[in-house]
Specification:
Oligomer: single chain
Distance between the termini: 40 Å
Number of helices: 1
GO molecular function: cyclic-di-GMP binding
Strand content: over 45%
Protein name: Pilus assembly protein PilZ
Structural class: mainly beta
InterPro entries: PilZ_domain
Largest sheet: 6 strands, antiparallel, barrel
Length: about 100
Amino acid sequence: MTQTNSAVETDRRRSYRRRTLKEGRVVSNDHSTVFDCLIRDMSEGGARLKLETTQEIPDEFYLYIVHLRRRAKVEVRWRTGDTLGVEFMSALEEFPGLLKF
């Protein structure tokens, strides 16, 4: 499939984003608050997250990708009432197997 010039001009992502449906957790920096989310698509540089609401979600947090047992520090780049676009601020790293949410 080829993209038209207008589609390329409106997509400002640095890398291709793959559709996915992964279980995730939004975890505050001090690990005091956890929100469930669905990771709807992901790229090397970021992800799109679906939540019940984004009202109480901070601008920076840890995103845990449950089945991969990985996490990354992220920063919100855009938000709607139930969706966040986040940029990875650190590389994905493994988290301990005993960690429970």
